[in-house]
Amino acid sequence: MVKKREAFEIEGKRVIAGTQMGIKLPAAKLYTDTQLDIHVEVFHGLKPGPTLLVCAAIHGDELNGIEICRRLLGRVNPKNLAGTLIVVPIVNVFGFIQQSRYLPDRRDLNRCFPGSSKGALASRLANLFATQLLVHATHVIDLHTGAIHRDNLPQIRCDTGDATMLAMANAFGAPLIMHSKARSVSMRGYANQQGIPCILYEAGEALRFSELAIKSGLKGVLNVMRSLGMLKGRVSNKVASVSAIRSYWVRSESDGLVNMKLKLGQRVNKGYIIAHIVSPHGGDSVAIRAPTDGIIIGISNIPVTNEGEGMFHIAQFEGDEIEIANEQLDEFLMEYA
């Protein structure tokens, strides 16, 4: 006789094996004495396995991850699941309500880990997440988008020197993998310090839905679950991810209006004119040239700039890897066209 799996517990709630439960973690109160909760969905599988935590909106204006989580909820059956899936669609509920990246005190929640139960609001929320959710996880996927007016090509960021994280990144199937050691005060950095492999998916723009970002993100999460043995079936990726060796921000050399010459995902060659900056009152334009060969993985969508502001984020590759990355990216974009 097969021994029945023990229940999974969060905040005093018991989730029986083979079931799903929504749990509300009391986060804090508004000035009006209205309670705000972090809503958590737990899928506790019949069979033992990893505990995967998928979270979104640590920055409250990053909406694509929320939609990825929402669609994920409809794709998992706890009776067919090995292990446990914890889904947190909205971590920063305060920022989400205000359509803001930050908390009401302008603190960045993703710079406050592990936090403290006796600290300010951001510190308390970070501590709640770390002690009530992250502590249960064996693996983590952190869903993000670009900042406001900045669009990011789908990419995975992780410490590629860690074999487990690199395997998760390759299974996810985003076209690009960026080597990135996390800040120690970020959720990803704290998870890594605790020995929990965490990868970060970055795609799209704040306060905007992108079907490309959402569909590829959902497929990526399901692929990671398959690779971990949580779901049956094989990882299904039409293209293989390519790792960039570094990335470079091209910054404005002048102030004014911007005429972009290239789009997100396009290849650039060193010296190529990628934008012109002009004064709204006329006069000569300033040409902005690519400082390196690469692929544009991030772009500013607002056509005005001040000197020194980031305009393009270019990924660099080793040797002929750029050719492979360009081909794989074309196939990836065709898949979701």
Automatic annotation (TrEMBL):
Which superkingdom? Bacteria
One of the Pfam families matching this protein, by short name = AstE_AspA_cat
Write down the required cofactor(s): Zn(2+)
Q: Does the keyword RNA-binding apply?
A: no
Task: Specify whether Lyase is a keyword of the entry.
Answer: no
For this protein, the record's InterPro entries field holds: AstE_AspA_cat (IPR055438), N-alpha-Ac-DABA-like (IPR043795), N-alpha-Ac-DABA_deacetylase (IPR053138)
Q: Where is the signal peptide?
A: none
| Keywords attached to this entry | Hydrolase, Metal-binding, Zinc
Which intervals hold domain Succinylglutamate desuccinylase/Aspartoacylase catalytic?
48-227
User: From the UniProt record, which GO molecular function terms apply?
Assistant: hydrolase activity, acting on carbon-nitrogen (but not peptide) bonds, in linear amides; hydrolase activity, acting on ester bonds; metal ion binding
Spell out the protein name for this chain. Answer: Succinylglutamate desuccinylase/aspartoacylase
